[in-house]
Structures are given as structure tokens and as C-alpha cells.
Amino acid sequence: MTMTFIPGYKATVTLNNEDVSAIGNVVSLNLTRNVMVKNVFGAGSANSLGGQRSGTFSASGHVAAEKVAALVAMFDSDTSIDFSIQIGDASGPTDGGTYTGKCNISSFTIEANADGEWDWSIQATTDGAVEHTPPAG
Fold first, then answer.
1. How far apart are the C-alpha atoms of 112 and 109, rounded to whole Å?
2. What is the Cβ-side half-sphere exposure of residue 119, based on CA atoms within 13 angstroms?
3. Percentage of the chain modeled with pLDDT above 90
4. Is a pLDDT exceeding 70 seen at residue 117?
């Protein structure tokens, strides 16, 4: 079986309907699930029950002057914002599907680096379910 690996730069990332793909260089979605271990007397091993899912979302990249106000507004928002991550080229050979959901940004950083560029980063917690839509076909 031949595997089609997806280069990391092939992604589309939107925050609050704002495409940040061009200014992003690292994105991470970490989904977790609470699991309860259920011990039964006399059993040789324990069983587990799956519980609630939650997650964290982070993104970072170089600052574009046109996007600073939008990033600040997302952090200042009193309500959760939409996010989506399209893995690979949509409808193309590297289509890995799309993750969508809502998140609340808990941390927003803007800083200058040694290369003379400004960088931004956010940390967020998911709000509700994160959905994965597999590629078509």
C-alpha cells in the first residue's frame, strides 16, 4: 500500500472566519477524553468507560499588519469563536478532512524575534464538540 503523506504547509486555518493560513506556521489541535477505569471484583483486568471529550487549540506565525486587529478582537471576544483546520488540499490527493469547532482564546502573545520579525501565538480551549469531516470520496 502506498501512503500519501501530507506536507505540513498544506493546510487552511481559519479563526472566526478569518483565514490565517498565510501568516501561520504552526498549528496544533490536541483532543482528549476523560476515561473512567471500572474495576470489577474477581476480574483479571479492568475495563474502561469513555467520557467527555475536550481539547486545546494553538496556532502561531508571523504577524501581518492587516491581521493584528482581527487577532486582538478574537482574544477580546466575550464569546467563543469558530475555528477550522483543513488538512491538505481540499478535494485533492492530500485531503485529510476538516476539523471544525468553537474555542475560547485564553492566551494571545505578540513578540519580536531575532530575525527582526514579529510573531503571534494563541492558546485556546475548545468549546463543545470538535467535528471531523472526512474527505469526500
1. 10
2. 13
3. 50
4. yes
Report residue 33 as a C-alpha cell.
Answer: 477524553
Cβ–Cβ under 8 Å, residues 26 and 9: no
**Cα gap 83→99, rounded to integer Å:** 8
| Amino acid sitting at position 137 | G
pLDDT at 105 over 80: yes
Q: Which residues of 6-22 are buried (b: 16+ CB within 10 A; e: fewer)?
A: beeebbbbbbbebebbe
Residue 133 CB neighbours (<10 A): 11
Determine contact, residues 30/53, Cβ cutoff 8 Å. Answer: no
In this structure, which amino acid lies at residue 2?
Answer: T
Helices (H) and strands (E) in the chain, counts: 1, 8
